[in-house]
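Homework help board

Subject: predicted structure for assignment chain

Our instructor gave us this sequence and asked us to write out the predicted structure in token form, then describe one feature. I got the tokens but I'm not sure how to describe them. Can anyone check?
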Amino acid sequence: MPEPAPAPGRLLHILGLGFGLAGAVGGTIGAGILRTPGLVAAQLPSAPLVLTAWLAGGLYALLGAVCTAELAAALPRAGGWSVYAERAFGRRAALVVGWTDWLAHAIGLAWVATTVGDYGQALLPAHLLGSITLFPHLAGQGIALVVIGLFTLIQLRGLRAGSTSQEWLSLAKAAALLALVAGCFLLPAAAQEPQQTLPEVTAAVIALQAVITTYDGWASPVYFAEEFSQPERDLPRSLIGGVLAVGGLYLLINAALLHVLPLPQLAGSPLPAALAARALVGPAGGAVITAVALLALLGLINTVVMAAPRILFGLGRAGLLPPLTATLNAGGTPSTALLLTSGTGALLVLAGSFDRLLGLGAVLYVTLPLAGIASLMVLRLREPELPRPFRCWAYPLPPLLVGAVSVVFLAGMAVNDPLLCATAAMLVALGWPLSLLTQRQGEQAPG
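My token output:
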């Protein structure tokens, strides 16, 4: 059945809770959960403390979801975090926040696609890989560009195709990870030495930072807020249910790894999931984990390619960017914004060298919920009469806690890498002259 064509300047309203949960899971779970358990275990002296760290990270994300659910249900419009910033702080702040949001997505898209290229090479047939050994980076870049192009074509078909692909990819990702968990628990338990020593504060902070980073993406449903058929009901359920699903899966994965691997072995491995897979299926375990990682990353790419264009669409429709960014095709996809996003991601892939870009993306992603928290508190004071189908639980405790943790997280990154944070601040600041230019063009426009 063909999709109904959207009215000019309007998106389709066909999404429900199933997509919302798939978007939260797909936008959060990447290859990091296969690597990060080793980093966390290296900082903490006992298995209970490792699981506590993952539980604490899930609680942080849950509190953020509860805060964001109020904003999303009250203001279900396309544009991501910029929607809330505009309502609370004005149009110029909205453009700065939207610019930061889109830039973080573009960087994330390039990094994830490059990682897919790296993992994809590992699964290429030996005779084919041997023919390109002189230029291995070109093979990885080629795979990355093909993947970006593929998902761009899927999104160009329309919202229904994009949402269906997201639901299936998220389901496959969750099933693969649950299969790994189940397999680990079928193996004999590894002997764990009882250790009760409390970790140093610095080590605990490093562990929590690593855990929190793996929860990035929990807010993915807000980018599709306007396309839900019942946003006041399904957005809060998607945000909160998505965090609970991801948090439960993360705890299961870590419990499974601790079941099959002694803590020192877990802490000493850069890819502990591969060790577990080898214990399950022998030498083929490396290929199995590579395939699982690829599946996780493909779902993440699909989410980013869907979400980022809606940021530009919202800004363009609000008159904060050229009207061309707000054009929709017959399937309800912001087509120009999609091509701009995918093109930028492809250029960043070709630029290469992603260590610094990944760090920049992490800083930008943490600042965005802070903008949302500030918007929530300002709107509570300024617009108490605003209809709020969902209200933040135990307000104002959740926004204060999330804000405090986010500030500590950013402060820790500033101490460890001040140049990185200064670069991120400069990139965010570029949104300010952009807002001035947009405002000037609006004042000069006829009528």
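Reply (TA_rk): Your tokens look well-formed. For the description, you could write something like this. The chain is about 75% helix and 0% strand. That's the kind of observation they're looking for.
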